[in-house]
Amino acid sequence: MKIASPSSPILTVVSSSGSLDPKISGSLGSRILPATQRSSPSDNLLLHRTMSSNYLRHVESMSQLPSGTGKISQLNAVVLGESLASEENDLIFPSKEFSGQALVSSPQQYMEMHKRSMDDPAGFWSDIASEFYWKQKWGDQVFSENLDVRKGPISIEWFKGGITNICYNCLDKNVEAGLGDKTAIYWEGNELGVDASLTYSELLQQVCQLANYLKDNGVKKGDAVVIYLPMLMELPIAMLACARIGAVHSVVFAGFSADSLAQRIIDCKPKVILTCNAVKRGPKTINLKAIVDAALDQSSKDGVSVGICLTYDNSLATTRENTKWQNGRDVWWQDVISQYPTSCEVEWVDAEDPLFLLYTSGSTGKPKGVLHTTGGYMIYTATTFKYAFDYKSTDVYWCTADCGWITGHSYVTYGPMLNGATVVVFEGAPNYPDSGRCWDIVDKYKVSIFYTAPTLVRSLMRDDDKYVTRHSRKSLRVLGSVGEPINPSAWRWFFNVVGDSRCPISDTWWQTETGGFMITPLPGAWPQKPGSATFPFFGVQPVIVDEKGIEIEGECSGYLCVKGSWPGAFRTLFGDHERYETTYFKPFAGYYFSGDGCRRDKDGYYWLTGRVDDVINVSGHRIGTAEVESALVLHPQCAEAAVVGIEHEVKGQGIYAFVTLLEGVPYSEELRKSLVLMVRNQIGAFAAPDRIHWAPGLPKTRSGKIMRRILRKIASRQLEELGDISTLADPSVVDQLIALADV
To answer: What is the set of active-site residues?
Structure first.
């Protein structure tokens, strides 16, 4: 299926880098371009990119703090490398040595760069974009945006008219710059001692071979290609090959069930699906080809047939003889790709042409196809990677995320390679064969930047510290956290034990929809507080609003929104722009609504408090409650289900399911296991409920709405906070649920 560039009427125009008149500020801080930059009286030149003239007013007082000295309002100052962080209210400074070589080395430098990115976004991002290769430069208009549904359709465009290719900038540009012999990928297999590597020249050749195969089989610009692969080198190769020829890749995490994969195939209608026969994760073998076969059977029944299933022969996991095969559709990767030329012409695309689709969970039960375009995403991921990790050309970088999630797109493949980085790709489980595997890998490849999820940190915390301390880890200089807020105790363990109290932690907040980091520490600039995402990245203006959408000043808690667009923002939901607007822009008109709660402390630091909608963040994976509920009610003995998130020691959030059975069906442990298995089969193991709570009935209003607030309190045993239940259709249900809490 062809995936066209997102388009809708453009209501605002920003010309290239003219300064904006600070005198025109109004109550909403509206800004107007100088008259000399207005192309015609008919142009709508009033910028809806509203902002306060003092956009970092909450942190201005801290901007002059000398690195490594001083205290701030009862906060203990700790200098990295000199003492342990032990309290949640510690203020932790980078060492003078680290700051001295950092790309952003002080609060003042950060403030100056952020100020320019807000005062002159067109000029700021144009300067950065000019460092990349463009076959044709964009015009005078750098970006256009409308984020206010009251003013017309939501629309975001950056560098429109600019012609480029992200694969060319990731690979060819680096080879031409003399980095052809530099290692692009170190691949570490599931089993100890199984590894491989590719230089940038070798990676380019393999990408071109696959790209030529896809072209030869009719894949053209705008066509969708589904990728269902584990963390083999072939996964980033496949992504880059699609990008090279202008095809739109949709990577599906190779832990999703056949039903979930089929949903995505039916939605985007790919010409080709790329997979492998099996993978080993830890001691377990997962037959991916069997899952793909079932998904293709299901999608075919729904009228969507895929002509080619290109299958990588992963001989370390299984054999060809044990792989089911459909002649005429299934093709062995190794039998055909090596026959193709190692060079492939680039398909030059517009900055606003689609790059990839990535499906993420929504609260309605149907996954959302988040669509990212090429130019703005390229510039934003490259820039956020460079500054948030203080990247140096000598770094070896390892992000433990799978490419089936946005982190693997932005910070395994595109962001690092746009900077010419050496990347570690790991196939296996982080605790196999034991809990020291991560640090084995760090020492083996001299990893200097290690980016992982709080879930993994908490999991490793539960084991003896000897698994960490028996390894050197001296190569590490920057740590990172992604996927969910990291609790202060996990932050301290990560910092003290893994980083030996000398490595700053880039605790990043962002989303599939944002494309790249939105709020993040810059390692050499700001002192950190354990658990805080710190301050906004360049070009980002976060605001906290109340239930009415009114911005709250100073120390506060509320809903996290963003004013104005940024280059990495997603442009639409595939095939459903109305849902795009309804989900993200209608809740608080004039803002992008993140769906997250947030607290800003008295020093201006941002603390993410978790989801406020019906999406649960499990180990960094966003799972819609409606998806889990839909899977549960497919069970023949389940009449109704309601799912909420609860705190989980390791995963951050766990899935807690209230299940009402059909009349006369008794509770049993076998039935409980059967319900969990139903979810595993329908969605995937990562979405399996942690707890099934039997529910004779559910707390509903008279109109039939389930009161999830009450269910959350019961699930978390906060019974004294149930509040008023008199408005329920049947208040006695609450007592019944409490009585069954331990059944």
So the answer is: 613
